Amino acid sequence: MSSANIARHLPLMAASAPDRPAVKVPRGRTGAGIDYLTLSFAELDAEVDAWMGRFAAASLSSGDRALVMVRQGLPLIASVFALFKYGAVPVIIDPGMGLKSFLACVARTRPKALVGIPLAQLVSRFAWRSFRSVDTRIWVSGSPTARLLAPGARYAGDRIPLHASAPRDLAAVLFTSGSTGAPKGVCYDHGMFDAQVRLVRSAYAIRPGEIDLPMLPIFALFNPALGMTTIVPELDPSRPAAVDPARIVDAIRQEGVTNSFGSPTLWRKIAAHCRARQLTLPSLRRVLMAGAPVPVQLFEDVQAILPNGTAHSPYGATEALPVASVSADEVLGKLVPAGNAAPGALLPAVATAAGAGTLVGRPVPEVQIRIIPITDGPVESLETTRPLPAGEIGEIVVCGPAVTREYADLPDATRLAKIVDPLQADRPASPDCPPGVWHRMGDVGYLDAHGRLWFCGRKAERVETDEGPLFTEQVEPIFNAHRDVRRSALVGLGEPGRQRPAIIVEPRGPAAVATPSLRRKLVRELRVLAAAHAHTEQIRLMYLHPAFPVDVRHNAKIHRLALARWAAARAGYELDRREVPREVLRQ
Fold first, then answer.
1. I need a labelling partner for 561 at 20 to 30 A (CA). Which of 162, 195, 307, 369 fits?
2. pLDDT digits over 493-508, tens only?
3. Which pTM was predicted?
4. Alpha-carbon gap, residue 201 to 306, rounded angstroms
5. Burial (Cβ within 10 Å: 0-12, 13-18, ≥19) of residue 146
């Protein structure tokens, strides 16, 4: 039987297109533009072989966990592919989660090896308790362009064969961002990686020979399997919001990039830069925005700079990706589903502004989505719950060949997040027979009459009032419509079931809140917006916050639970019905 090892795609590309560029890493600028270190697929495959030689010399064994702490660029791509090919298990933890959380993840994962730059090796010595499982250290240069082989050279040592991995063999441990809880290590097997490649290729019609600029480093690892050239962006992955959009635009235009993934925060900056300079990005065929809900205005702004492409938003999580996808055309009403010509039917953009939630699209091929009643405890079996009908909000659960089965070393978290279908649990993943594990996304939403998924918010961030639940994505767009609001956050104060809802607003700029009277004016206008909708009329407590805390990975997910703790210690702006014009209350 042939190996299911995800790394097998690299030597296949090296054989079929040896001279095609595989990766281009920026190493400076000249008068002609960005200067790149370029490796062909044949050269990258040789570089990976050289890395495998280092692992063999260090007595690393197949199945060993290896913590990877290297720079994005060539070291990340080559070392991780070499670990795959060798049969070892890369452990990748987002360093932006903070040192305390990072060290806790290391200690819990118990890696045998550390593949790291000098700074990482130094940290491991000082924090030795967290790294006590490490007995093999492989030092890596801190340069993103560091290579083991001279240009055009082949690895001169004994060629180590591709490890014969089965589909269910553990391939990697990738950590969640921890935006609504402690970060967790997600166990990926080789069959799941294969399924992700297949689903992404199918969902977005990606073809070999395309050029990708991934603004989340881990996504570069899929490109050899997709046959795409990777353009490493000039971006600090630990501080993505600090990116200079001009550098991203320069790379896209210079290299003829056809595909790019990034968070809504990054694409907001890129679109604003292009709009201010009347630039377009004609080479791009698709832009993928994910990590947080994509506002309608951002779809409009990004689509305006893509004369030959389309903006998309894939929905998913580290534990299950992709799940669903929606395009700008559908959000903006240019693509209407069959049978949606009923009188009074709202376009998705209009429905979102009115509090319907955010459309995240149809399930990608091979993925099943169900909506079940919301519960915070474990769900032992699908037989103990029931699917909700179209239009009814509940918890989103998904099943498919790219849905992960467990967390690393966290059996209680696995039990809480997974539902096992006993009729399918032991069957291998395949297009015709999805695995029997359903993942609870931690999100709430509903399916509409056309089978499209609408996202209403994170389950942990719902507000349980004595009048019923409120969901962030049905409330916040009401307030985000105000011209002086950059973003808003729904929070609950008090005990669940009797929480008092409050809205916290981050103003678009200091001018709108420069004086007490201006602040009071803004709050009164927000109260008018709330009173105009039945589901937000009860919100009478409001706060102004200078800058929301957000996740490091995407700089887009709002830390609403942290904001709730912030608000609980402060007095907000209290408004009652007498401060709302009567004509609004009569609507």
1. 369
2. 999 889 999 999 999 9
3. 0.93
4. 20
5. middle
